[in-house]
Each structure stands twice: as structure tokens, then as C-alpha cells.
Sequence to fold (236 residues):
Amino acid sequence: MPRICNLSPTYPFNFEINRSKRKSLAIHVKSGKVEIRAPRYASTKWIHEFVFDQKSWIIDELARQKRHHRQRLIIADGREISFMGKPRTIVVLVSHQKEVRVTRDFVFLYIRKNTPENLEKMFNNWLKDKAREYMGVETYKIARQLGVHHKLKDIVFRKTKTKWGHCCQDGTIQFNWLSMMAPREVINYLIVHECSHLRHMDHSKKFWNTVASVCPNYQELRHWLAENGHRFWSGV
Ligand SMILES: [Zn+2]
Fold:
């Protein structure tokens, strides 16, 4: 008697199968949804075996994304934010005068109209100013230390979706002002990283040696960013 093969084993998640011209199977996990991309003629058995093989990875990935979503940056009264690595609680106060004031444990946001958009805008403008003050000065210092200050054209601040920093061919260095939430050592590493690109426009061994000449523990700081960076983003 042939054994009856159950083609629908139960999983602790639902998944959608999307078939296309592709040749192999792939998993995409995003916003709590699991999608299996499969070749047009892939058998159901093959797909289920694949999902079964990847089951624990999918479960871990769903949990990781959920945790990151919970920990994402939200500017609101009572929420915790970090400024140069130090966690502080946000206090929102309605006032005629717009102002941001920082004490040891709190960030006071004095605002005319308490709406999520206004808070977001006010906080970002303030953080951008702080980034200009700190990172602007430090970047020139590090560029000078590396002897590449003549190549530094400009420093600009942008809230990009995926990058902390970027160095353009023309010598313009771009930083994401959200990096000001990270510890000072991590911010300094980002500065050293971008300034080192003024010497080497790649991620070659020579480039990393340049980074290490100013920032010997850069690997540890990169690791910190990979583990914690998501806390400074508003999205997932
Ligand atoms: Zn780089």
C-alpha cells in the first residue's frame, strides 16, 4: 500500500506561492507575510519540502522583523529615544514657543500643536542641526588627520532609507542625521568610514586599513550598527 502523502503539512505561518519564469525557489518575508517565489512548473511537493526545510529560518525571520517593527523609532510623549547613545524619554509640552531642550534623562519638545507630523518634523530638524554641529566639525578633523581634507568638497545631511553615510566621487560626504542617535564612538566610526573613502573609493583591504588606522575597533562598531541600527528608523 502506498503511503498517503499529505501535501499540506501545517506551518505556524501562511505563505503565498507566486510562480514566474524563474528557475529556483526563493523565500521572501516582509511585513509579516511569507511569499514563496517558484518556477512556473515547480511541483507542489518540491515547494512544500523547500518550505519545510526552511521552516525554522522563516519563523526566526518573522520574529526578527516583528521585534524590529516594535522597536522602530516613534516620536511621541513617553517614548524613549537615544541621543548620542544615551536613552532619554520624550516629554511633549504644548507651548507658544517651539523649542527642543535636552536634560540628562529627558528630551522636552515644546510644540504649538501636538500632532505626530509636527513632532516628527520638529525632532528631525533638531537632530539634523545637532548632526551639522557635531558631524560637520568632526568630519573636517578626521579628513585633516587622514591628509585628505583637500578632497573634501562638502558635507550634506540627508535622511536616506538605507544608508548611514555615503561618499560621492566629487568628494561630497553625505550623512544620515539619524546616526546622531548612536553612541559617540559609532558616530565617529561612520565619519572615519566616509573620510577613508576620500582615499579609497572602494571597500578594499587598503580602505579598511585606513579606517583601522583611526578606528582600530571598527569591526565591533560595525557590528553594533548592524544589531541596533533599526531602532533609529521610523519604518521597518
Ligand atoms: Zn563605504
In short: The beta strands are 15-20, 26-30, 33-39, 80-83, 86-94, 99-102, 106-111, 154-157, 165-167, 172-175. The radius of gyration is 23 Å. Helices lie at 44-53, 55-71, 116-145, 184-196, 205-214, 218-228. The pocket of zinc ion is lined by residues 193, 197, 203 (CB under 6 Å).
